[in-house]
Amino acid sequence: MRCDDTFVEDAGWKAAARRYQQFLQDHQQGRVLYLELGVGMNTPGIIKIPFWQYTQANSQAIYACVNASDARSPEWICRQAIGIEGDIADVLTALERGRES
């Protein structure tokens, strides 16, 4: 959450950030899907860049980005990346329909 030009980092945020970092650390190896839904370039250091780095470090990882207009990935992980441009709700509905058939 933004408050002027800074993030509000209260105790709840810090606890969630620790859990998130622990989860990422615990799942660095093996088959992992780093699924990014609607993340922009406002704060790439929180989700985008770490996902790219974890994908590059793990040959079994896949980075998937669903975004309305910018579902790109860096060239250095292009063989492990999936980019889908579209409305998240529409993409998830299409995936669900595909699973049912």
Tally of alpha and pi helices: 3
Q: What percent of residues adopt helix (DSSP H or I)? A: 25-40%
Percent in strands: 15-25%
First and last CA, distance = 40 Å
**Helices and strands: which structural class?**
alpha/beta
* Spatial arrangement of strands, main beta sheet: 3-4-5
- Uncertain runs with pLDDT below 50, 5 residues or more? none
Q: What is the H/E order?
A: EEHEHEEH
Largest sheet: 3 strands, parallel
Shape: globular
Give the radius of gyration.
Answer: 15 Å
* DSSP E strands, number: 5
Word description of this protein:
The protein is of the alpha/beta class and 101 residues long. The protein is 39% helix and 22% strand. The protein is built from three helices and five strands, in the order ββαβαββα. The strands form two sheets. Strands 3-4-5 form a three-stranded parallel β-sheet, covered by helices on one side. A two-stranded antiparallel ribbon has the order 1-2. The N and C termini lie far apart (40 Å). The relative contact order is 0.12. The model has no long low-confidence stretch (mean pLDDT 89).
